[in-house]
Amino acid sequence: MTEPVWKPHVTVAALARRGGRFLLVREEVNGRIVLNQPAGHLDPGESFEQAVIRETLEETAHPFTPTGLLGIYRFVPDEGVTETHIRLAFVGEAGERQDLPLDTGIIEPVWMTLDEIEASRDQHRGPMVLQCVLDSIRKPAYPLEIFSPDFL
Questions:
Q1: Residue 55: its pLDDT value, please?
Q2: One CATH from 3.40.50.12650, 3.30.70.600, 3.40.50.970, 3.90.79.10 for 9-145
């Protein structure tokens, strides 16, 4: 008998910073209100950059222009579970909020300082929320040219 093929969930996340505040979303997940970066799954046929632009607009109504790849993160939500998330986190610029509906489950976009984000750890959707914010402050992003234009 053949073992099933392991398939991680590929997601993208946006880290936008303006005036010392970071763009997050307050959303309802499994009956709990949590904070997260604008983030979501890669759709078939789209590039990583297209996915982060789309997800940020759908979740915040802010247009997003990625300027670099912050990092690639692997997260397993629960021990003993085979579900794994691979997150590509992008830094970039958020434009002015547009008059658009937000995705189902999204309550509102919020701009928070690092201190506010650290003080709200118990509300984070997962540990990558704070880690990505800290990484965006502490390390440079990779240029978007890291992605091969021939294999998007």
A1: 98
A2: 3.90.79.10
